[in-house]
Amino acid sequence: MSAPSITSIPKPRSPYKARKTGNFELNSWLFMRGSGLLLVVLVFGHLFVNLMVGKGVHAIDFAFVAGKWANPFWQVWDLAMLWLAELHGMNGLRTIINDYATKDTTRFVLKTLLYFSALIVLVLGTLVIFTFDPCLDPASTLEVCTNR
């Protein structure tokens, strides 16, 4: 007995049309991996400098932060940590909202609140890092203020 031969495959009732979404999801997946690795380096470097170098945790006070942020290197380091952590977390929450919010209006409202709150944190955090001035008090005895 021979097997029946199939010469053609019937056409589907409704042809599948792939949605053109671009590479946004792929790029956000890659961003999560890259930012996660970079955050590990930034956070452990931050912890090492703040907790292990010098007097450790007992040296962390206003003067320590003021001295650290007087150096542009540490401003950029903390800014990179802030931005990467905020965007990494926002992207993760965006993915959770997309996965679990079933209604389009709920998804829209939650993502709008997420983007708005992330923008506020990024703007305020950036302003604090770059406009921080420990010498606003004329009686300040910080070394940073006396070297002006």
From TrEMBL:
Query: Where do the coiled-coil regions begin and end?
Result: none
KW Transmembrane helix (keyword) present: yes
Any idea where this protein resides? Membrane
Q: Which CDD domains match?
A: SQR_TypeA_SdhD_like
Superkingdom of origin organism: Bacteria
Which keywords appear in this protein's UniProt record, sorted alphabetically? Answer: Heme, Iron, Membrane, Metal-binding, Transmembrane, Transmembrane helix
- What is the name attached to this protein's record? Succinate dehydrogenase hydrophobic membrane anchor subunit
The regions listed as transmembrane in this protein's record are 30-49, 113-132
Q: From which source organism is this entry?
A: Nocardioides jiangsuensis
